[in-house]
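Subject — a protein and its fold
Fields — amino acid sequence, structure tokens
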Amino acid sequence: MIEKNKKEKIKIDKKRAVIIAAIFLILALFISFVISNSDGNHILKSEYSINESGYLDKIEITLKKVNYIHNNTGIEATFEITNKTNNTITITPDDYFKFYDINEVQIPNKYTSNPKIVKKNETVLYKLQYDVTKKEIYEIYFYSQVVENNIKFTFKSSDIASEIISEKDVTVEKKSNDE
């Protein structure tokens, strides 16, 4: 009778050992899967502010600055885009970036001098200009065109810098010393 109990106890111990080994194996496979599919040290979220780097489908994007333009009737947003995909990407501003007015109608980008092609591992500054009415909070959505995911860049009117006036916009009058 004692030997029968010992044999049953050994069978139960073997089953426990197999179950524990299986749990550790599953846990090890899960950890290796998570590590292999991670995007490095990027913290992924859906909403970013100025100077926060967003990361979507191996494209890193940062809203660097926002300025008022055209006597404060528009804004210019400057993004830094790094292509970390294995391919070249072609950016069309109104497909990759969506900026909506109060009625949720997309406002088209007015700036046309951007590079359209971003090569693998290349970083570019990308400018967008929009005619806007002043409001407290602005949102620009970035779509990577790989999937329907997007990330949102939010900024307040207090985050927008004053309009920069370049010398070409200013007429300077010189007086001669003879007068």
Observations:
- The chain has a mean pLDDT of 81.
- The longest helix spans residues 2-36.
- The two ends are 126 Å apart (CA to CA).
- DSSP finds two helices and ten strands in the chain.
